[in-house]
Q: What sequence folds into this?
């Protein structure tokens, strides 16, 4: 139907191909360029989703929080928490045995996940 005009979607007329000038690619061909639109996959992005119900906050002590973090979470999340808090948990100090040593700065609870330091 040639007389029909849409109410909501106004279509723009197609451009003529004479006006389009294609820019030359730095890599020689468009297929040779790396894809730049992909985002790094975050395994826990679902936690930040606005569609997810936020958990209720309960005030607990730091000691109880460490116990909960080390026992109730999946291994991947335990490892992520351990990576984030490792700088507060251990420190490098003078050692009489090897000259330098890795020392614990806080109490480690039973069952809490730790990363072994080989020292090599």
A:
């Amino acid at each position: 139907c040639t007389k029909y005009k849409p109410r909501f979607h106004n279509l723009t007329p197609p451009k003529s191909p004479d006006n389009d000038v294609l820019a030359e690619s730095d890599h020689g061909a468009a297929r040779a360029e790396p894809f730049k639109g992909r985002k790094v996959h975050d395994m826990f992005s679902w936690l930040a989703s606005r569609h997810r119900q936020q958990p209720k906050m309960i005030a607990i002590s730091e000691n109880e929080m460490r116990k909960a973090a080390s026992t109730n979470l999946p291994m991947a999340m335990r490892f992520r928490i351990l990576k984030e808090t490792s700088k507060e948990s251990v420190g490098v100090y003078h050692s009489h045995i090897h000259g330098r040593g890795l020392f614990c700065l806080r109490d480690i609870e039973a069952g809490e996940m730790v990363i072994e330091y080989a020292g090599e």
Observations:
- The first strand starts at residue 90 and ends at 95.
- The beta strands are 90-95, 99-104.
- Helices lie at 62-71, 75-89.
- Residues 55-120 form a domain with the Beta-clip-like fold (CATH 2.170.270.10).
